[in-house]
Write a structure and sequence with these properties.
- The protein starts with 5 loop residues before the first strand and ends with a strand.
- The longest helix has 19 residues.
- The strands form 6 sheets. A 7-stranded mixed sheet has the order 14-15-16-13-12-18-19, sandwiched between helices. It has a 6-stranded mixed sheet with strand order 9-8-7-10-11-21, sandwiched between helices.
- The protein has 475 residues and is α/β, with parallel strands linked by helices.
- It has 15 helices and 22 strands.
- It is 39% helix and 20% strand.
- The structure holds adenosine-5'-diphosphate.
- The site of adenosine-5'-diphosphate (ADP) has 17 residues, from helix 7 and helix 8.
């Protein structure tokens, strides 16, 4: 069992103000208790923010080169602790261990390292006539993260914060705090100045408002559900602080009549089943021409049925459990909603083999005959559930794809890249993956509409962490 009963504040491990209120973390593969962390109070929040505030002047005055060396040292130590980080993620949220090692951890380490080359961003100036535009680190940042990609989400916020000279208070999801504890150990080992990185664990509904409303916080970067994002923005509004949000999604993939159907449908199914559908940008609505709809259903069924759902520590498993029993129930409820709405269950569903009954498992599920106004086609399920929707012509497909409160990601599979691009440019979503393209952390990640505000990763991600100062001279 993971032992820490403390928070990392001001470079020290401090006991929580209330040690009687704890968060119990269960392994979703078997329901066993694996960790117990303290549930922060407002007093703990105040202590963490005070530490970050105190550290800010000196940290923001470090040179780019000094911050670069710290980022590299942290990345090196993350590399040394790679297996611990991966084990923590598999144990707490259930993704297969090989996936944890490569996608959840190694990719995050590599992405964190990229920020070492971005430390000069805050020193870049722009000059026009008598005006010089400077950048200034925004200050104390609160970083609130979800449980689906717990390390990657932390890195996407921590990297730019460190590169620009901001200090942070980190609050991981209550279900997945362990990798953040390891990160705190890494910060301590590397000797990052006290107060630059502060960690508290707690429930969003208990301390979220206090964290976001706090007058000593300059910026909140939040990833999570749209409902929680609304609460974050409301709490932050009275102090006019910047809020960067990456929220829900119900992303659409359009396949055209002349696309390679086998490749397109397989890509779409794999995208949804990746991380058991617990990816905010998952392409959960697949739009297929009526003329090849039945063929596409057959391809999707066979792609889904190739998955091996099982113990995440078994190297043969391609899908583990969902992240928690609550999440499993939510997905099962949506599968029942789909059946009741009249969608056709092609494969998957709510039944489980006996050996999977002790964990939060859900089989890869495909729905066909989905109408785009059904709840399963409009609401974010956050599980391995794909909705296949037939369309008559391309314009109709684009309209249905855009008819969503969300606008996070999208995809197009057409005859070739130029044809796909033409459709991509008509989709109201922050990213579009064409012809099987994949995400690269140099690109800005974020959404239109209720999928969020602001962007993470790349240069655009750095902009969230700086204020601009324009200086005017007489000539
Ligand atoms: P989920 O429902 O999938 O757990 P949430 O959006 O509730 O997703 O949680 C994502 C993160 O947001 C977690 O760290 C959680 O503690 C936090 N959170 C939840 N509600 C709030 C809130 N009102 N204010 C701030 N953070 C919150």
């Amino acid at each position: 069992m993971y032992p820490k009963q403390q928070f990392y504040i001001n470079g020290q491990w401090l006991a929580a103000a209330n040690l009687n209120d704890t968060i119990q973390i269960k392994n979703p593969a078997n329901g066993k208790l694996i960790a117990c962390t303290p549930s922060a109070t407002e007093q703990d929040v105040d202590a963490a923010i005070a530490a970050a505030r105190k550290a800010f002047p000196a940290w923001s005055a470090t040179t780019a080169e000094q911050r670069k060396l710290f980022i590299i040292a942290i990345a090196d130590e993350m590399q040394n602790r790679r297996d611990d980080l991966a084990q923590a993620i598999t144990d707490t949220m259930g993704c297969p261990i090989e996936h944890s090692i490569q996608v959840q951890v190694q990719d995050s380490i590599d992405a964190f390292r990229e920020f070492a080359d971005m430390v000069g961003f805050v020193d870049e100036t722009e000059q026009q006539q008598n005006m010089t535009q400077y950048k200034v680190a925004i200050g104390v940042c609160v970083l609130i993260n979800p449980w689906n990609y717990p390390l990657s989400q932390l890195v996407g916020k921590l990297g730019p914060a460190m590169a620009t000279g901001c200090t942070v208070v980190v609050k991981p999801a209550e279900q997945t705090p362990v990798q953040d504890y390891i990160m705190a150990e890494i910060f301590a080992k590397v000797g990052v100045p006290a107060g630059v990185f502060n960690l508290i664990t707690g429930y969003g509904h208990k301390i979220g408002a206090h964290l976001c409303a706090h007058p000593e916080v300059d910026m909140v970067s939040f990833t999570g559900s749209t409902a929680a994002g609304v609460s974050v923005a409301k709490a932050a509004a009275p102090t006019i602080k910047r809020v960067c949000q990456e929220l829900g999604g119900k992303s659409a993939m359009i396949i055209t009549e002349d696309a390679d159907l086998q490749a397109a449908v397989t890509y779409g199914v794999e995208d949804v089943m990746f991380n058991c559908g617990q990816t905010c940008s998952a392409l959960t609505r697949m739009f297929v021409p009526s003329s090849c709809y039945q063929e596409a259903i057959g391809i999707a069924k066979s792609a889904a049925e190739q998955h091996i759902v099982g113990n995440p520590l078994d190297p043969n498993s391609t899908m583990g459990p969902l992240s928690s029993a609550e999440q499993q129930q939510r997905v099962i409820d949506y599968i029942n909603i789909g059946i009741n709405e009249g969608a056709k269950l092609v494969t998957g569903g709510t039944e489980l083999a006996d050996e999977l009954k002790s964990g939060a498992y859900v089989r890869p599920t495909i729905f066909a005959d989905v109408k785009h106004d059904m709840r399963i086609a409009q609401q974010e399920i956050f599980g391995p559930v794909l909705c296949m929707i037939a369309y008559a012509d391309e314009q109709q497909a684009i309209e249905m794809a855009n008819d969503s409160i969300y606008g996070l990601a999208s995809a197009v599979y057409a005859k070739d890249t130029p044809s796909a691009l033409k459709i991509a440019r008509q989709l109201r979503a922050g990213q579009c993956y064409i012809q099987g393209g994949y995400f690269n952390t140099l690109g800005p990640f974020g959404g239109f509409k209720q999928s969020g505000n602001g962007r993470e990763w790349g240069r655009e991600g750095l902009k969230e962490y700086v204020e601009l100062q324009a200086v005017f001279t007489p000539e």
